[in-house]
Design goal:
By secondary structure, the protein is an alpha+beta fold. Among the domains are: about 60 residues, Antifreeze-like/N-acetylneuraminic acid synthase C-terminal domain (Type Iii Antifreeze Protein Isoform Hplc 12); about 90 residues. Helices cover about 25% and strands about 25% of the residues. The protein is built from 4 helices and 7 strands. It has a 5-stranded antiparallel sheet, covered by helices on one side. Strands 1-2 form a two-stranded antiparallel ribbon. It is elongated, with a radius of gyration of 38 Å. InterPro entries: SAF. This is SAF domain-containing protein. It comes from Thermocrispum agreste. It holds the Pfam family SAF.
Length: about 230
């Protein structure tokens, strides 16, 4: 039999070692804390991605929509190169979105549009009733009326005559007849001394449009409704 005393003496050093639970526990705490921190960071990152990323629409039906193929300025007639058709998820389509470019070609935007913006019927100025037989030799001229209240009576497509005052016996001069109202800008931009700063955009043959623009720089002008 082995010497029991010798065995006990050999175990004394091991039994006499001071346990280091704090260090051991500390390491465990640090490890668990680190894991929790990593998981928290990952969860926060995932939440941020889900918050800014739109919901997946891979299986959602898509419909055609007309979008701008480049930045488009307002009050300029849209041309075929300005537009293209894309298929978008139905949930992303605004009400009144156009589905055919033909519905927008030749029309004007009521405000600027960025590339890729879906076009709706509300973004287009109402169709203008053409008053010229030349069909193409026309220009759009902006004028500010002498009586701004008249601008509130105008609607796109209305036909008007542009007149001004003169020093002649008649006291009035017709600058253009049968002009088509393209659009009337919103009020609210009036400067000092101006009761209404709305601009009225008229479509006229180019020569008449130039004459109206020139006269409006030096004389008050207004319109009469047909």
């Amino acid at each position: 039999m082995p010497d029991i005393a010798r065995v006990l003496r050999s175990l004394v050093p091991w039994l006499s070692r001071r346990p280091r639970p704090r260090r051991h526990i500390g390491r465990g705490i640090l490890t668990a804390t680190g894991v929790r921190r990593v998981l928290a960071v990952l969860l926060m990152a995932a939440a941020a991605v889900l918050a800014v990323r739109p919901a997946s629409s891979a299986g959602e039906p898509r419909s055609p929509a007309v979008v701008t193929s480049r930045d488009v300025a307002p009050w300029r007639k849209l041309e075929p190169p300005d537009l293209r058709v894309v298929r978008l998820p139905r949930s992303a389509l605004p009400d009144g979105v156009l589905t055919r470019p033909e519905a927008a070609v030749g029309r004007m935007l009521s405000g600027p549009a960025r590339r890729g913006e879906p076009l709706t019927d509300a973004r287009l100025v109402s169709p203008v009733q053409s008053t010229t037989s030349g069909a193409g030799d026309t220009a759009t001229v902006p004028i500010r009326l002498a009586d701004g209240a008249v601008a509130a009576l105008l609607r796109p497509g209305a036909l008007v005559d542009v007149v001004t005052v003169t020093d002649s016996e008649e006291g009035v001069r017709t600058l253009a007849s049968g002009a088509s109202v393209v659009a009337v800008t919103e009020s609210g931009d009036a400067g000092p001394g101006e009761h209404d700063a709305r601009l009225v955009l008229l479509e006229l043959p180019t020569a008449r449009a130039n004459r109206v623009a020139a006269v409006s720089l030096s004389r008050p002008v207004t319109v009469t409704l047909r």
